[in-house]
What does this fold into?
Amino acid sequence: MAKDNESMSREEAGRKGGEATSNNHDKEFYQEIGRKGGEATSENHDKDFYEEIGRKGGEATAENHDREFYEEIGRKGGEATAENHDREFYEEIGRKGGEATSENHDKEFYQEIGQKGRESRSKQRDND
It folds into this structure.
């Protein structure tokens, strides 16, 4: 029997171990080990690490999904947010977004987006 175990591939051993673990533990077990893993990761890595894995994940997602995918997850996210938040929530995030934008942009930025808005409204009136 030991000979059979020696010939087992790592993949097979991992699969069997994963099955045994899933048979012996519940959802709370996995939540707890996930929490502990997240805490350990945050203690050992800085902002640059998270930016890098986020960038890589975003690139991989973009390579594997089309516009409809993003439209669908955006719609679902928007619906879930709307169900869970009230008007004050939207006022607060709008205020914070406006403050962040004003800190990061100058007068020319606002002139440019104002011009684009006027042009868009003008085109819309012409089409009506």
